[in-house]
Amino acid sequence: MFSMRNFISFLLFLGSFACLTWGKDVLSCLSSGGVQNLTTISSPTYTHLLDLSLYNLIYSGPHVLKPFAIILPEDWQQLVVSVQCCRKWSLVIRLRSGGHSFESMPSVADDPFVIIDLINLNRVTVDLDFEPAWVEGGATLGELYHAIGTSSKAHAASAGVAPTVGVGGHFSGGGNGFLARKYGLAADNVVDAILIDADGRVHDRESMGEDVFWAIRGGGGGGWGAVYAWKIRLLPVPDTVSVLYIFRHGSISSSVQLVNKWQMVAPVLEDDFYLAVLAHAGTNANEISSLFMGLYLGPKASAFDSITRAFPQLGVIENDFKEMSWVESTLYLWTSKKEPTL
């Protein structure tokens, strides 16, 4: 008797056989195009690479469809080949840009798929003469900031704080950060990009057109093509900036009043001052702990004068501000280390 269990097993067998057939063709296509750095499900490194940026453990179970392969191109030509080979056999492409994803969407799909991980495309080129920087799509914010900081104390990039965030997802999603009030989002400071479309064609801003260029800067990553590199504007900052990183603990009522006041104050501070707050549960059920983080583009005396006039309820003293370079401030705001090092 042909049971439903036998029928399902038969379908799985057919699927495995089909995968074996086109799988060899895909691997042959990649190899002939010079793409050697990849791993398949039979490789001992497969699970490690798959889970490298997988934060949502719902997608780590055996019931979830796994990628046929994880491809790690090492230059733009290999990225083109990777896209072309996967497209030829109608594989869904998921792009990972070297950082992390709390949703883990780059690691899942409903149909047979591959992950093209840009983690090896992480070079950053800084040109201080013309003040742009080219950032490959697999670089993290930490790698970008390090490259800028080792080149100049007077330049910065407008983007987020977490150094493990990949620029690809960050720039394509907008990219908020502590320079946004002064210079706009990360996406506002992208002036060009190198995009690989679904047919493997290479585009810059001119050839992709302004509509696509607009879409890749805030419309989300992976839907418009694979961005090999971003050209971003370097922004002037003073040699010394001031950082605020203080906790305020209080009752639910007093904390609500303080955060409500922050909502009124933060948008009307001068553009050189960015003030953020993170509120979370305190040590007991009736307490809220609020972390206030600020960046002021200037000396701490000026920062202190500004905050005491606009927000005296915060109870800041001048020594609450720490003076440092801009690149050191990115690390301090992430780790609150007293002596940040590049």
Give the total of beta strands.
15
Question: Can you tell me the overall shape?
Answer: globular
Helical percentage: 25-40%
Write down the oligomeric state. Answer: single chain
| Major beta-sheet overview | 5 strands, antiparallel
The secondary structure category is: alpha+beta
Q: How are strands sequenced across the largest beta sheet?
A: 5-6-10-8-9
Helices, by number, come to 11
Average pLDDT confidence is: 89
Q: For the record, what CATH class of the largest domain applies?
A: Alpha Beta
Instruction: Give the termini distance in whole angstroms.
Output: 70 Å
Low-confidence regions: 7-18
Series of secondary-structure elements, N-terminal to C-terminal:
HEHEHEEEEHEHHEEHHEEEHEEHEH
In the CATH hierarchy, the architecture of the largest domain is 2-Layer Sandwich
Keywords: Signal
Signal peptide: 1-23
Protein name: FAD linked oxidase
Domain FAD-binding PCMH-type: 63-237
Provide a brief overview of the structure.
With 342 residues, this protein is α+β, with helices and mostly antiparallel strands. 33% of the residues lie in helices and 23% in strands. The longest helix is centred in the first third of the chain and has 29 residues, at 4-32.
Descriptive notes:
The protein has 342 residues and is of the alpha+beta class. The chain has three domains: 101 residues, Uridine Diphospho-n-acetylenolpyruvylglucosamine Reductase, domain 2, CATH 3.30.43.10; 113 residues, Uridine Diphospho-n-acetylenolpyruvylglucosamine Reductase, domain 3, CATH 3.30.465.10; 96 residues, 3-Layer(aba) Sandwich (Vanillyl-alcohol Oxidase, Chain A, domain 3). The protein contains eleven helices and 15 strands. Strand 5 and strand 6 form a beta hairpin. Helix 4 runs antiparallel to helix 11. The longest helix is centred in the N-terminal third of the chain and has 29 residues. The protein is globular, with a radius of gyration of 24 Å. It starts with a helix and ends in a 7-residue tail after the last helix. About 4% of the residues have low confidence. Keywords: Signal.
